[in-house]
Amino acid sequence: MAFGPGLMLAVFFLVPFGIMLLVSVAEAVKGGAYNLVFDGSHYARFFTPFFGRVLAFSILIALLTACICITVGFPFTYALTRFGHRTQVVWLVFILAVLSLSEVIIGFSWSILLSRTAGISNLLVWLGLMSEPVAWYPGLVALLCGLTYLGLPYTVLILYPPLSRLDPELPEAARMLGASPLRSFFTVVVPAMRPAIVATVIMLFVFTLGAYLLPQVLGRPQHWTLSVLITDQAIFQSNLPFAAAMAIFLMVVSLALVVVTSRLNRRAMGSP
Amino acid sequence: MNRLVTNLGMGLVFSFLIAPLMVVGGVSLNAQKRLLFPPEGLSLRWYDELFTDLAWLVPVKNSLVIAACSALLALLIALPLAYFLWRYRVFYAKALFTLGIAPFVLPPVITALGFLIFWVTLGFYGHMSAVVISHGIFFVTLPLVTLSLGFESMGDDIVEAARSMGADEGMVFRSVVLPLVRPYMISGYAFAFVLSLNEYIIAYMVAGFTVETLPIKIFNSLRYGYTPVMASVAVMFVLLAVGVFALVARFGDLPKLLGKV
Hints:
heterodimer; A: mainly alpha; two-stranded antiparallel sheet; 13 helices; globular; B: mainly alpha; 78% helix
């Protein structure tokens, strides 16, 4: 009975990856087509300084975003799971609504929020906190804001199951022994959740690595990431083989990280 | 003291999450085309344009058709798969489940490029049906996860009871399993629908130049000609998402759907 659906997944998901692997070593032909002749030069292009710079920036920005998201998202989700059922539901509906927002809309709204003419700096000037409005967009600040906005709801949803399963008696016991709420959070809750935190950071890293639109909308050309480069090569440079080679590279990195994550999770479940 | 810190922190996160939405709301109600601080004049003209201008109505229609069909496809693939995995614990069940989850774990740009090359090879590049199938496959994860949760919460004994009363496999499925799992079907469909509506990169790579969906339309007008109609679209999207998820929460247990025990 599962034969049909299983077959469909295989045909429409595995086959495209198979073809992509083939195309990544094919010869590029002008006009977006490709010739199935072996050509490994696309992988050789990974060793150029330009590619190295893009890769380094992609990794750096993804790591930074993952760290910001976990720093904000972990205490937030912990507090959320301690609320009553109704409050949790309202928050979750809101978080899901933000999560479902298209990158296009996120980029658009942050570009206004950080602009000089209508942005938040005007509010700060009006409150007397700044002397004149400034433009934070486009730039690194805008990109980080957008990526954090993209990743935060995702963080909450990944951390929600393990944190809501955390035994409430654990922090309570620490409180009974005289620890302050903050102290019990850092000495009991955080260590108990360490595997979940590491797993979340890795998943966020992979997730942010895949952001393709925000770097284009909120950043400057030097802020383009690997994902932007893939889209650019596939659509505008019409070089499918090079785009495929980069996608395969990104997939190998992501898969390796995902495997590490599931290993960590399994080990965490094995030992109480 | 603890309460104060918690509320302050929650308030800050809330402001961060709501601020862009407030600004977009402001732009959509602003009478002038250019938004200046402080805003001047209220008007609904950008909403009016959204619902009367064909340049916006066609993408609206495309997006709704694609989301409705692809969410249905995702559900139709996920339902038998999840049922099979729950009912018969075969050795390759885990592999099948992983296959269903995989598209969602990888950066979507990879899947998008895979679909692009796949449809170019088959000659369906630029067709709306290609977008529907691609989204259907990509979003299988969502109904698969909600349905698996639904089946897990059901317990084997209920099927055994029906079997011992003489029901055959088909009757068990129709009269016992299906009604119990319906809330999970609806929520899986709802998740897939809303996310398909907002999906950009796959739709763009598979048929971006022939079938314009709303996210593609917004991105194009962001690049090649700003109009506040974008803001009114964004507001509609947010309201729709809130509405759908609120309905899911109303008819099902949202915390449980999201993995709370």
